[in-house]
Specification:
By secondary structure, this protein is an alpha+beta fold. It contains two helices and two strands; from the N terminus they run βαβα. It has helices at 16-27, 44-57; strands spanning 7-11, 31-35. It has a two-stranded parallel sheet. β1, α1 and β2 form a beta-alpha-beta unit. α1 runs parallel beside α2 (44-57). The model has no long low-confidence stretch (mean pLDDT 83).
């Protein structure tokens, strides 16, 4: 499997282990679907991670 084909779903990506796992997978160029409970309260850490990922991939 090539890096382009590696995909992961991370549940609870707004903090703690989920946020760390999503960050690490994105750093390794995985395609990540990250879920959080309340989209009206997205933590700053997750916003930074999403911004960095969108700059790398051109998504946004």
């Amino acid at each position: 499997m090539t890096k382009e084909n590696q995909r992961a779903i991370v549940v609870g990506a707004s903090r703690g282990i989920g946020l760390g796992l999503a960050r690490e997978l994105l750093n390794q160029h995985w395609s990540v679907i990250a879920t959080i409970r309340d989209t009206s309260q997205v933590p700053a850490d997750l916003n930074q991670l999403l911004s960095a990922a969108s700059r790398q991939t051109g998504i946004g």
